Amino acid sequence: MCPVADAHCPPLALIHHPGYRIALPEKHPFPMDKFSVLKRLLDRQLADCASAVDWVTPQPAEEDDLLSVHTRRYVHEFLTGTLSAQAQRRSGFVWSEARRERSVLAVGGTLTTVREALKRGLACNTAGGTHHAHPEAASGYCLLNDIGVAAHQALDDGVKRVLIVDLDVHQGDGTALIFADEPRVFTLSLHAESNFPARKQQSDLDVPLPRGMGDADYLAVLERTLEEVLARVRPELVIFDAGVDPHAADRLGHLELSDSGLYHRERHVIQRCRAAGAAVACVIGGGYDRDIEALAWRHSQLHRAALDVWREAHGQPALFGPPA
Asked: What are the tens digits of pLDDT across the range 152-186?
C-alpha cells in the first residue's frame, strides 16, 4: 500500500517523451529500447502511488538552443542530413530524419528537466546525458550535447553558478570542452581511467578511477570529492549525469558497482546537492547491456533514489530504499 503524498509533499517531476525511443537497425549496439522500457518499469513500480510523481512531456529544442554550444556548420549539417560519412561513423549512427528528431527532442527533455528543477528544486529525465558531443562534431553515440545546451540556457536565465556532476563511466569530454573557458560552469567527472575516450579533455576536476573499483571505494571517493566541490563552487544548479555504465555487468564499463551501489550513489549526490541549496536536474547517461530489462532497472535507481530523497525532504516516508 502506498503512503500517498499529502498537501505538504508535491509530486516529483519526471520528464519523458515516447519519442525518446526510435527504431534502430537489428543488432545495433546502442540499447535504444531502454528508454521505453524504463518508462514502463517506473509505471509498474509506481502503480499504487501514481500521485507521487508528475510526468512532464517536453518539446523539441529549437535551433538557437543547439547553436548556444554547437558550431553553426555542425548544426546545419546535422539538421539537414549533410554530415559526411566519416562524421556519421564517429557518431556511431547513420543519419536519418527520425534520429535527428529524436536527438532534438532529447535535448528538449533536458532543457525541460533543468527548468523544472529550477522551479521545483529537483527533476529527473528518463533520457539525456549525451556528454561526448563536441561543439563541432558528434562522438560516441552522442549527437547533441544536451547537458551543455541546458547549462547554457540556465546561465541565460540568470543562474550564476552551475555544477555538472558527471558519473558516467566515460569522461564527459564534450561537456568539458564546451565549458573550458566558462568560469560560471564547473565540470566534475568521475570516470574509469582506462576507457573511452582515448583522448580525454580537461574538466575543471577529473577523477580517473582504477579498473575494478567497487561500491565502498567508489562511494568514498565520490563523497569526499563532492563535499570539496560543493564547498568550492556553491552552485545554484547541479546537472547530474547518472550513467549506470560503472555497473559490474555493463559491457562497456571497467568498474564494479552493484545495483545497491548505484542507488546509494544517486541518493548521495541528490541529497547532498539539495542540502547545499542547489536545484538538481538529473539525466540518465550511459548504460550498455543486451538485457534491456536489467539495464532499465539500473537506470531506475536514479528515479527511485530521487523520489525517496524528495519525499523525505517533505516529511514523507521513502517508497523504495536500496535494492536487496
From this structure: 999 999 999 999 999 999 999 999 999 999 999 99
Residue 319 has φ and ψ, to the nearest 5°, of -95, -30
Report the Cα–Cα distance between both ends of the chain, in Å, rounded: 19
Say if residues 240 and 168 touch (Cβ distance below 8 Å).
no
Kindly tell me the number of DSSP H helices and DSSP E strands found in the chain. Answer: 10, 8
Angle between helix axes 34-45 and 292-313 (nearest 10 degrees) is 50
Q: With contact defined as beta carbons under 8 Å apart, do 35 and 20 qualify?
A: yes
**pLDDT of 2 above 80:** no
Tell me the per-residue pLDDT of 89-123, one tens digit each, with 9 for 90 and over.
988 888 989 999 999 999 999 999 999 999 999 99
Cα–Cα distance for residue pair 305/310, rounded to 1 Å: 8
The mean pLDDT of 277-285, rounded to a whole number, is 98
DSSP letter assigned to residue 10 = P
CA–CA dist 154, 148 (Å, integer): 10
The three cell numbers of residue 272 are 547532498
d(CA 290, CA 297): 13
Of 132, 264, 299, 303, which one is the catalytic site residue? 132
Residue among 258, 239, 217, 9 at smallest CA distance from 145 = 239
Active site residue 132: yes
Rounded to whole angstroms, how far apart are CA atoms 189 and 197? 13
Q: For the segment 202-227, what is each residue's pLDDT rounded down to a tens digit?
A: 999 999 999 999 999 999 999 999 99
